[in-house]
Predict the 3D structure of the following.
Amino acid sequence: MSLIKADLDLFNELVEGLLNEESDQPVAERIAATELYNKLDLDLNEEPILDDEFKSTMKEVLAATPKTATKLFFNQLFGGRQGKAIVGDLLAVMLNNSMYTYKVAGPQVGIEQEIIRKSCDLVGYGEGSNGTFPTGGSMSNYMALIMARDRHDLSVRSNGVSKRMTVYTSKESHYSNAKNASFSGVGRDNVRYIDSDEFGRLIPARLEEQIKQDIIDGFDPIYVNCTAGTTVLGAFDPVNHIADICEKYDLWLHIDGAYCGSVIFSDRYRHLLKGMERSDSFSYNAHKMLGTPMTCSILLVKDKKDLHNSFSNDADYLYQTDGDDFNLGKTSFQCGRRNDALKFWTLWKSVGTKGIKKIVDHQFALADVALRYVRNNPDYTLYSFDDSISICFNYKGIDANKLCTALYERKITVVGFGAFGKDEFIRLVTINANNSPDDILNFFRVMEDFVDANPELLN
């Protein structure tokens, strides 16, 4: 016990130092990958090191690690911190339960199931629905595809894939769709990438044309991936229109809401997913819009029988007590699985559903601040649109890749770039709900000041 307390005291000291470092240096100094092992002591040695040396090494590693929670980090589809969620994650580490059986997880099973039940209600699924916590959005998409495959032909589980199956997704969708087709036996060449409109949304008419052609060509269409928040423009595919097509041709409809599926909590923005209750599966990542520590992904399924059909497997050495509804390993891809639910539960429990709604709405409000600034400044070119927390723009015609790289390497701010069609641009993501409107405007100020101080960027 005394050793654990001493280590926790060390942890608190390191965290305090990290928070001070983030305040003084919100953007970490970049270490070139080729210099990493020369700059930091990352070697694993035969002999132990002294406590003071260990502490010093840890402080150096923490200081050099990219700081994703600061007010100058806009690079990824996650950012910031929610304190109560961190408490839950730390407690999950201390408890160290595995989530496959009620015997070893106890009330943590109830916590996970409560999150799933309330989430299914928000989507509009009925009493027969359920879900699980996969390792991330890619795994959520994979599990949805497996269920679609098995519902189309349950014999695949025993005999392997024998039919020429096809799956459909937008050209702007997540890259995991190609990998998942390969893993599932469908095959990468049988993924049909459907054109999107000028806002980055899948075009339903093009989808139906492709399905019809594949049927004529002797394929078996089985699955459509619908995106709620594309990775670049943050676009929402038109769920209702896509659902009409899926019902007409008996295709599984999955909504990949890893980025922006959390709009289910918002009265103001849930219209972006109108028709979501017609889908067969739905996923969202609480570690993105809701600010829980990574990873925290939720996969919901309208009919829980599909989870059991695809992922249940008997194991007498493991499932020895309680019913299937409490033995979560029966409906998950993994066996041993860390408790990703507790951190989301501690956040949700502490702020309530209304508090989660405020987190989501605030990010759109921050996006509106950025949109207004870009639209009202003639030095900017805007490429994005309303109802997105991805603000895409260029400044003074400067190459986006060049500017973003310079901002990162000179420790000014961390922001990414993306492309849509023939255009490449800076992509500012307002996903850190701890930011204020002033923090968004400060981003533009520091970027503009940097360009003024480095006129060579204009060449």
Summary: The CA atoms of residues 19 and 430 lie 21 Å apart. DSSP finds 15 helices and twelve strands in the chain. The chain has a mean pLDDT of 93.
